[in-house]
Specification:
The chain is α/β, with parallel strands linked by helices. It contains 9 helices and 7 strands, in the order βαβααβαβαβαβααβα. The N and C termini lie far apart (about 60 Å).
């Protein structure tokens, strides 16, 4: 069977595996099945231990991206072990919802800046630290969200953070174009059933609505996101740069579907 993705022998660093439901885990598994050499980076010794069975014999490095010293140390360790890297998958996000849902204007400075640091600036910091290892035609892929303009009360401050992440793609690609052809793109999925999303207040209800709003009436699957990420990492997407591939099963065009409207009106009349 032809190697369509041309990933055989390419070395990809995947950040962000937490468990079997993680987007990063599905991406890594998909890349490995396509013949890529996958290197994982997790944030703590405890996480490395908890994912040991999942990641098997694959090399696993540690890096808490909140600390620049650890990012620099990771770059040094990767440089000692590998001559080059063909791609990076950045699947890292964090939002502190411990205080429960509240209006966006009540977001604390600490909440917003920490979310920005981990979820957005980490892409910049990692890319800069590893730039010397990236091949001329390397591909960097991050995981965003399908829309940052839908003002969901429960997702709140994370949407502006993801908007910054999306914007950073163009600036990173422009900067790197001065010395390479490294590409920066994002996969932007609709609502997914992951462990991380379970920590967002009211997420289950939003997920169930999103499932009904897709054109096919079925939720986006994590594997579908992984497949899109694998494509963007691969040489097959060499002409794609600074773009977002939205994976939402058509939800964006279907908010006014007659079934959704009728369901809302019926619920209102029943009330």
């Amino acid at each position: 069977m032809p190697d369509f993705l041309q990933l055989e022998g390419r070395r990809i660093v995947v950040f962000g595996v937490a468990n079997r439901k993680s987007v990063a885990y599905h991406v890594g598994k998909t890349l490995a099945e396509a013949g890529a050499e996958v290197i994982y980076v997790v944030r703590s010794p405890a996480r490395r231990e908890s994912t040991a069975k999942l990641l098997g014999e694959s090399p696993v490095f540690l890096c808490d991206v909140e600390h620049q010293t650890q990012i620099d140390q990771l770059a040094a360790q990767l440089g000692e072990n590998y001559e080059s890297i063909h791609g990076i998958v950045h699947s890292i996000a964090f939002g502190d919802y411990s205080e429960g849902p509240k209006p966006f204007h009540e977001t604390s400075k600490e909440q917003l800046l920490r979310a920005f640091d981990i979820s957005c600036f980490s892409l910049v910091a990692i890319s800069n630290a590893l730039k010397g290892l990236l091949t001329q035609d390397a591909s960097v892929v991050t995981i965003s969200i399908s829309t940052t303009r839908m003002a969901s009360e429960n997702y709140a401050f994370m949407a502006p953070v993801k908007a910054a992440l999306d914007s950073s793609l163009a600036f990173l690609a422009k900067s790197f174009s001065q010395f390479s052809e490294v590409r920066f793109n994002a996969v932007a999925p609709g609502l997914l059933k992951t462990s991380a999303s379970a920590g967002i207040p009211g997420y289950v209800d939003s997920y169930l609505y999103a499932e009904r709003a897709t054109l096919r009436g079925r939720a986006v699957q994590t594997q579908e996101v992984a497949d899109a990420a694998a494509f963007l990492v691969s040489p097959c997407s060499s002409g794609i740069n600074t773009q977002r591939i939205v994976v939402d099963a058509g939800m964006e065009v279907n908010y006014f579907d007659h079934r959704l409207i009728e369901g809302y009106l019926k619920a209102g009349s029943d009330g």
